[in-house]
Structure formats: structure tokens, C-alpha cells
UniProtKB/TrEMBL annotation:
Keyword Cell membrane assigned: no
Name this polypeptide is given: FAD-binding domain-containing protein
Keywords from the UniProt entry: FAD, Flavoprotein, Oxidoreductase
Cofactors named for this entry: FAD
Gene3D superfamilies attached to this UniProt entry: 3.30.465.10, 3.30.70.2190, 3.30.70.2740, Uridine Diphospho-n-acetylenolpyruvylglucosamine Reductase, domain 2, Vanillyl-alcohol Oxidase, Chain A, domain 4
Species of the source: Lentinula lateritia
TM annotation in the entry: none
Keyword Cell membrane: no
UniProt record similarity statement: Belongs to the FAD-binding oxidoreductase/transferase type 4 family.
Domain FAD-binding PCMH-type: 72-251
């Protein structure tokens, strides 16, 4: 036993080098590098650089250097937009030889600062890799370039009566490679499970430039270690995903949704239990929005699902979606549910509005999906994407609000609102603190407070958005020392020079 311990200690010294010290050994891109990249890439427009040989205007690089929230800003001089896996491979090989850091970038919709450089790493954008490689309408297996936008894949499979197994508010911009790299959850996870289940295979360019071809289309493959799982949720720290094979489910024949107004948060849990029991196999989403989040969505034009009278006295709202095989059957079940909820002796809901047509169906979803956009219009968001027991959702929001109040920060001038929304079915609460500006005072009031709160419930500091640059220091609240040490060993084996998305996920 003790020999084994010594052995692993030695190995950690050999393999585990702190990412931050490696990051400081990385080199900036030179004009000579840019000239080399121009030779590798087939099209001149695939290289953007403010260095002399290309002289792109710095403003053109802004959209790649700045994140969606306006919270993280990189200083990259050079953005590369390869068109093929071979081009990606050659870029990565060069960067590895020259010790240049690389930030893989998809749609740049990530919410944890993972998709922009911390310094002046090269940004490798997948946005020119947009070919669907194959689709089998019998099995529903789609093989595609990593740069395809989620919405365009949804549109691609729709005429074949299939849907993508995931859906999220950023679908018009995020890419399937980014989705896989963040292990995005979203609005369909309750029904179709996580990407760890629906992704069948990946093609990945490893940090030494070699191509790992695991782009299998097999549903079953038990031939040893399932390496692709390591890249799902790795946030670009282990390699660059260039191709994805994914199982798409058949499109439901009928979908309905309903928004329910609840007088008290305490009713959410019993409501979920009732809804699950009554709708059983046709339940496909159960999403939660607290009153402040709802009001914000309405204020910023994301739609209005209920009238003034209907929202009166409501503490929170739940959006329920059904997806099934026969419209009449599903509608009957949903109507029975609504009736029994409204006629109960002690009703769990104040009221409910059932979408009557596809336009209303979409507008109910737009309201839920629009919360993120509304938050960003209201101010600067501190976004905590946590897994905690469902019964503690409200407590987490209330305690955070109290904390800010006790520090004198909840005064409209600094913090404007504290809201909660999210995926009840997945135990995932989005706790958002909306401020006028990002300030160290607010940050210090929130951290480690929120992370300690999550740890006290044995929760996760990241349910679906990832760690990125935002939570590297908080990883230990959800992962023990042994797990983090093994994560570092894995990182060091794949990327001994620390070029791949430096400073993300692991400190
Ligand atoms: P990016 O933001 O470009 O990158 C995200 C991370 O993945 C970075 O670390 C990046 O380096 C890495 N990466 C990107 N592409 C690759 C690649 N090909 N190979 C290797 N690494 C790569 N997330 C959810 O989980 N659920 C939601 O419901 C949800 N809703 C959202 C709604 C809105 C309005 C917004 C703005 C964001 C939302 N997000 C959600 C967060 C975000 O959209 C997802 O994390 C998404 O999967 C990121 O995809 P992307 O292509 O934009 O990746
Ligand atoms: C959502 O569920 O709306 C997304 O994860 C985005 C967010 O947290 O705002
Ligand atoms: Zn979410």
C-alpha cells in the first residue's frame, strides 16, 4: 500500500504541473507565425491578425476577444478560422512546437469565460467548419462538423422528422462542438438525457496535432475505455473537437405547453410530483421562473404569458411541456391535469394558461428562454449555475439576497435584483445577481458565500455551464482533492505543454 502511495506521488510530480506556471511559459504569436498560418489555411480570409503581415483592424477582433456577457476580455492578436480537420491539425501542431496557447471558440455564447483568451492566445474559431457529413434517417444518427450551429442542425433534421436531443436559448449562435465541449444541458435534458448519452462519437485534434478518430456511428461499442467521454465537458482543455456523431430522436407527433402561476414556491415540489404522476411518459420539460425573473422577462419584451390579474399573487411560475405520439391523447391528459390542479381543495396553482396554437406554444417558450437576454439587458450578471436539492432553490436565492442586503449592496445602485430560474427536473437552479457593474465589492460578497452554500447541500458549482475561467478557484467545492489531482494528471498527459485553453477549468 505504501509503495503504491509513493509511486503515485512520484507520478504526480512527473505529470502534474500547475497549469498557471505552464501558461506563463507560453509564447505570443509573432508575425512569422502568422505568415506560417497563412500558408496552412486555404483561404486568406481564414486568418485575422492585427500583426503587420495581415493588419486586421483591432475592432474586427473584438467579437472574438469579448464574451457574451461583457465580463471577460481577451487580448488575442490573431484569430484562425480553418475549414478542415487537417488545417486544424497543422495549426495545433505548429502551436505546440512553438508553445503558443490556443483557445478553441465556437459560437462564443459560453457563460463562464471559457471561450475567450485570458491573455493573447490564438483564437481558433470553428465557424468555417459547417458541413453535415452524413445523416441516416432510419437510425437518426447525424455526423457533422463541429462548427455547425445548433439551430441549423435542428433545421437540417426537421424534414426527416427528427429533432436535436438538446435545445437552448443560444441555439441561433452556439455550435454543436461548443455544446459538446461544455456538455450543455438546456431545455430537453429531462426527456433526452445528457450529451454523455447522445453523443456517439467524436473527432478530436489533440494538443500535439494528431487526429483522434472516434467518429463512430455505433450505438453499442464496448471496446475498452470510452475516450470520447473525456472531451464532453472538457471545455477545450484537452483538444479541439472537429467532428461530432450524435443520436437525434424522432420528432414528437404532438407538443403542448402550459404556464402555471403558483402562489408559493413551496408548491413547486408537490406540483412536480403531481405533474410527473399524471403526465408520466409525455412530460418533456418542467422549467421554473421566480416572480422577479418573470417580471424582468416581461419588462424587456420577451413576451407576456399571463394577464395582470393572472400574475397577481404569484410567487413563481412553472412551464410544463408535453411531447408525445397522439395529440388528442396528450391534450386530454394535460386538460385533466389542469382541471384537477384548479379544482383541488388546496390548489397548488393560482392559474394556468395552455397554449392554443403553435404561435402561443413558441411564445411561452420564448418567455422562459428570454430570461437570459432580459438579465443582460437589465445589467451585469453574476451567474451561478448550481445543482442543489430542489427543496432548497428558494432558500439559495433568499439567502443570497439577504447576504447582499446585509452588506448594504442591494440598493439598486449596486445590485439591482437577485433572481432564480432553471431546470427543476434536472435539479439545476440559475441563481443570477444583476448588478449595475461588475465590482470587487459585489464579487467578495458573493464568493465564496455562494460556493459554500452549494457545498453545504453537497451540490455542484456548475450544473451545466462549466467551469471556464470563472470557477477554477471553486472547483474544490464540488470535487475532492483526489478527483482534482486525477483531472490534472489527465490534462498533463494530453497536453504536457499546457497550450490548450490555458487557465480554464484547472488553475
Ligand atoms: P463557446 O462559447 O464558443 O465555447 C464554450 C467552451 O467550449 C469554451 O471553453 C471553448 O473553448 C470550448 N469550445 C468551443 N468549441 C469547441 C470545440 N469545437 N472544441 C473544443 N472546445 C470547444 N448552456 C446550457 O448548458 N444550457 C442552457 O440552457 C443554456 N442557455 C443559454 C442561453 C443563452 C441566451 C446563452 C447566451 C447561453 C446559454 N448557455 C446554456 C451557455 C452556452 O450557450 C452553452 O454553454 C453552449 O453550449 C456554448 O456553445 P458555443 O458554441 O457558444 O461555445
Ligand atoms: C438557461 O437555462 O436559461 C440558460 O442556462 C442560460 C442562463 O442560465 O441564463
Ligand atoms: Zn440553463
Amino acid at each position: 500500500m505504501s509503495r503504491l502511495w509513493h509511486w503515485s506521488r512520484r507520478c504526480s510530480r512527473i505529470f502534474t504541473r500547475p497549469n498557471s506556471s505552464l501558461a506563463s511559459q507560453l509564447n505570443s504569436v509573432t508575425d512569422a507565425d502568422v505568415l506560417h498560418f497563412s500558408k496552412i489555411l486555404s483561404s486568406p480570409s481564414s486568418v485575422l491578425s492585427i500583426l503587420p503581415s495581415i493588419s486586421t483592424s483591432p475592432e474586427e477582433l473584438d467579437i472574438y476577444n469579448n464574451d457574451w456577457m461583457g465580463k471577460y476580455f481577451g487580448k488575442s492578436t490573431t484569430v484562425l478560422k480553418p475549414k478542415t480537420t487537417e488545417e486544424v491539425s497543422q495549426i495545433v501542431k505548429w502551436c505546440n512546437d512553438k508553445r503558443i496557447g490556443i483557445v478553441p471558440q465556437g459560437g462564443n455564447t459560453g457563460l463562464v469565460g471559457g471561450s475567450v483568451p485570458l491573455r493573447d492566445e490564438v483564437i481558433l474559431s470553428l465557424s468555417n467548419m459547417t458541413q453535415v457529413r452524413s445523416f441516416d434517417p432510419i437510425s437518426g444518427i447525424l455526423v457533422t462538423d463541429a462548427g455547425c450551429i445548433l439551430q441549423s442542425l435542428t433545421d437540417y433534421v426537421a424534414p426527416h422528422n427528427h429533432i436535436m436531443p438538446l435545445d437552448l436559448g443560444a441555439k441561433g449562435s452556439c455550435q454543436i462542438g461548443g455544446n459538446v465541449s461544455t456538455n450543455a444541458g438546456g431545455l430537453r435534458l429531462l426527456r433526452y438525457g445528457s450529451l454523455h448519452g447522445s453523443v456517439l462519437g467524436l473527432e478530436v485534434v489533440l494538443p500535439d496535432g494528431s487526429i483522434l478518430d472516434q467518429l463512430t456511428t455505433l450505438r453499442k461499442d464496448n471496446t475498452g475505455y470510452d475516450l470520447k467521454q473525456l472531451f464532453i465537458g472538457a471545455e477545450g482543455t484537452l483538444g479541439i473537437i472537429t467532428g461530432v456523431s450524435i443520436l437525434t430522436p424522432p420528432a414528437p407527433q404532438a407538443s403542448n405547453n402550459v404556464i402555471l402561476a403558483l402562489p408559493r414556491f413551496e408548491n413547486v415540489l408537490p406540483l412536480y410530483k403531481t405533474v410527473k404522476r399524471q403526465l408520466s411518459e409525455i412530460l418533456s420539460a418542467f422549467e421554473f421562473i421566480d416572480r422577479t425573473a418573470y417580471d424582468l422577462a416581461v419588462k424587456h419584451g420577451q413576451g407576456r404569458a399571463l394577464s395582470e390579474e393572472e400574475v397577481e399573487g404569484a410567487e413563481c411560475f412553472v412551464l410544463v411541456e408535453t411531447s408525445g405520439g397522439r395529440r388528442e391523447h396528450d391534450e386530454e391528459k394535460l386538460n385533466d391535469l389542469l382541471e384537477s390542479l384548479l379544482e383541488a381543495e388546496e390548489p397548488l396553482i393560482n392559474t394556468g394558461v395552455l397554449a392554443q396554437n403553435p404561435a402561443q406554444f413558441s411564445s411561452l417558450w420564448a418567455l422562459r428562454e428570454g430570461v437570459t437576454e432580459a438579465v443582460s439587458k437589465e445589467g451585469k450578471a453574476y451567474k451561478y449555475d448550481i445543482s442543489v436539492p430542489l427543496s432548497t432553490f428558494k432558500e439559495c436565492v433568499d439567502l443570497t439576497r439577504e447576504r447582499l442586503r446585509s452588506k448594504g449592496l442591494l440598493n439598486g445602485d449596486q445590485v439591482k435584483a437577485v433572481i432564480g430560474y432553471g431546470h427543476v427536473g434536472d435539479g439545476n437552479l440559475h441563481l443570477n445577481v444583476i448588478a449595475k457593474a461588475y465590482t470587487p465589492e459585489i464579487q467578495d460578497a458573493l464568493e465564496p458565500f455562494v460556493f459554500e452554500l452549494v457545498a453545504s447541500h453537497r451540490g455542484s458549482v456548475s450544473a451545466e455551464h462549466g467551469i471556464g475561467a470563472m470557477k477554477t478557484h471553486a472547483l474544490h467545492y464540488s470535487k475532492d482533492e483526489t478527483s482534482i489531482a486525477w483531472m490534472k494528471k489527465i490534462k498533463a498527459i494530453f497536453d504536457p505543454n499546457g497550450i490548450m485553453n490555458p487557465g480554464k477549468v484547472l488553475e
